[in-house]
Amino acid sequence: MLNVENLKVAVGGKEILKGVNISVGDGEFHVIMGPNGSGKSTLALTIVGHPRYEVRNGRILFNGEDITDLPPDERAKRGIMLAFQHPEEVEGVRIMEFLQQVLAEVKGIDLAEAYDMIVETAKGLWFKEEDLMRYVNVGFSGGERKRFEILQALLLEPKLLILDEPDSGVDVDSLSVISRKIDELHEKGTAILLITHYGRILQHLDPSKFRVHVMKDGRIVLERGGEFVKEIEEKGFQKIFEECGCDE
Ligand code: ADP
Ligand code: MG
Ligand code: MG
User: Fold this and answer.
1) What is the pTM (predicted TM-score) of this model?
2) Where is the ABC transporter domain (predicted)?
């Protein structure tokens, strides 16, 4: 479904991704791990078409179509969604209005029907109806921001959901509900590309369900089965890189 081929990407004139290859098949679950600054967020934002990222080489295919130069909303219409590492505050836009508008645009659902869907789905993520009248992310805690990203995903049911550190800055209770909901989406057929540098969020998942890709300095240097997450946690990236000769 998603094929990233020899992708080189620059930000502010500096090359950050130096030839990334990764494929995600229909309904598959892939994990990207890697030290801070290795280019994980750059890859995620490039796949959804963030204008700051300049593709210098390679291409991104989605269901066989070259989407490398498509605007972000066209990628969203094709079923690609990114849950952001740092979701931004949108002053003046209420959650309910925002989600109703998104559901109307992407899925053609009318406002009244959307309202009920949103309230019902939000309950499962501990948002009360009154919470939905708040402005998007304004004054939200880390856990609330990440749960709101998951709420959008549950409502949209994208074909491919990219999650950029959904586990960073969240309390343990939020972590477990987020983890369960990701699994739920996957079970319903959404392909997952999950970026993390901890294994915690994968604890309840059967390691045979997913594959792990490890990034270093703008490249994916290792691909392994799900059990590899434990090994990374025990050894740390530095040791892993020494052992695979990835430092050369
Ligand atoms: P990760 O998500 O793996 O922590 P990022 O993709 O955020 O890594 O960043 C990769 C590298 O790109 C880092 O060295 C970072 O400093 C650099 N970078 C990211 N965004 C910008 C930017 N807007 N301008 C310049 N450098 C950037
Ligand atoms: Mg980082
Ligand atoms: Mg990042």
Assistant:
1) 0.95
2) 2-242
